[in-house]
Every structure is written in structure tokens, then in C-alpha cells.
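I'll show a sample.
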Amino acid sequence: MNQSTPFFSIIIPAYNAEKYIHCAINSIISQKFQDYELIIVDDCSTDNTLNIITDYENKYENITVIKHCENQTEHIARMNGVNLARGRYIIFLDADDFFMEGAFSILYDAIQTNPDYDFYEFGYVRQPSHELVFPSFTGAGKDRFSAYFAKDNVPAQTMWNKVYVSNLLKMAFSSMEKVIIKQGLPDIYQSIVIAYFTKRTININEIIINYTIGSGVSTVYKDFDTTVEYLNALKAVLNLVDNFLKNNNQLIDMDNIYYRFMSGTIIVYFNSQKNIEEKRKLYLMLLDYFDGKIVLEYIFNNNEILVSIMNSKDYIIGHKILQSLRKIKSFLKLWIHDTR
């Protein structure tokens, strides 16, 4: 590879991506705008991914392959890609996604028209629904950072629908902990840390990426062990966020972000359980992962959960406690009504 400074650095973390990595790479090398480098990080794939991307590296001087000798997850794959990147701007692409035709030209023109922004957020096509998704959050800088901890109007916690100024991204990643983050959760941590260093952002109302989500995460069956693994990974990620806030003297309440992700976990993971007793057991495990006041707030607003837990054959004490909680809930509703 030559040592000039490309305009874009494209980073693709890849793990067992032999079925779709061709499409991702071809969508890059077919772009009319050619002032880029492509960095592909193979995260110790066990299929033919490494051979495929090595063939591309041998054919194209602006393609570089990083090989992990052990699986280190997407977070570290991105970190290593960012460390190696030489471009003025950096874009992440998931191995099962691809760029639309003319994407790089559109992004280049947008940056030239609106220079001096820290990152540019763009639209994408969600597959298989063919839904067009455009950036909607209008806050920037510290507004965006604080919004991640709000209850409503939270920015998208995705890394792959943005173009980042390289220097800012390198600074942000150097502030992150180099740890294993499982279950596809690094975007949460990375997005928040990047937003902390961001001053100015702008939306580009153009469709740049084709984003593939298969059959949809909310409809995919998650067994008990997978759900527990996800809960452990989520707790670890939110602890990383909490540590980052403390290290940077940010006195921000984490309750909203915990509540939001607990709610999302219940909707996506708990509700996919086929075994009703395992589903109840998961509800009873919530206090192992989330603060009691957050769990109670969720239970108070979901009658069906009260019924589900109280019908558990293995938790008689909890049955009695939740009967009391239901009475408290009714009392609070009456009290709120009377004080209005």
C-alpha cells in the first residue's frame, strides 16, 4: 500500500463472513470515487473468510487485512482498524452490509459543502423490509452526548451510519477500554464515548448503506442461556459507560439508560422464550442485573409481568411480595389521581 493520505478509510470487522463479504467488498471497489483505503479485520474466522479477503488484498494495493489469531470481538477489531487508518475520514461497514452506488461521491460532496463537522450521519435501507431510514436526531455535541442518557429522543446508537473525522475518532477510541464486548453490543459504548468528544455534527439525508438484519432480531428465538449471556454482556457494557463517566467527572444519572436497555431486553429476549417457566425465571433474575427501583418501575407499568411472575411455581415468597407490590401500585394510582 502506498503511504499517501486517502480521503476515506473504510473499516470492516469480519468474522465467519464468507457468505456475504464479497458483496461488501465489491460495493467498495466498484465506487467511482477511488480516494480510499479499505481495512478488513478478520477476527479469527473459522470459515473461508480470511482466504477470501486475502485474495482481495493481493489484487488491490489499497486493501489491507489485519488477522486476529484469536477471536477478540467487534470492539477490538474496530479499535485495531482505527489505529491503522490513515484516511482523513473513517467509515465503518459491517461485513453483511454494502454501500449503495455512488455512496462515496455523495459523502465527499457533503463534506466539501459542509466542512468542519466532527461526524456526518447518513441514511440507510433496512433489509429485508426495504424501509428507508434517515437520520432524525438534530442535537449535536454535548446535546447528543447527554441525550444518550435521556428517556426520550435518544440518538441512534449505531456506528456504521456515520462518517467520522479521523483525529476525533482516534482520540475517542484511545479513551475506551480494550476489552472483550460480546453479543454485538460495542455500539452502545463506542457511540457514547465518541459523542463525549463531539462538538458539531450534521445529518446527510441520503441513503448510503444497505443494512441487513436477516429476519429481524425481535422475531428470532432466544433460548435461556443466550438471554443470560446477553444480560451479562449488557451489564458489562453499561459498567464500561459508567466507568467512562466517572473517569471524566460526568455526574450523569444512569437510570434512564438502564431502564431503556432493560425494557429492550425484555421485549426482544424475554418475550421470545418458548418455555414459560424459564421466562418467569428470567424476570426473577432482573434484580441481579438492574437496580431495584428500575425493575419496580417497569413492573408497575406492566400488569402482565406481575401475573407471569406471580404464577411461578418456584417462587412462593416472590408471589407474596408481588401481591403487596400490586396493592402498592393500586394505592399509588389512586393517590396520584386524588392529588391532581
User: Anything to note?
Assistant: The CA atoms of residues 175 and 193 lie 8 Å apart.
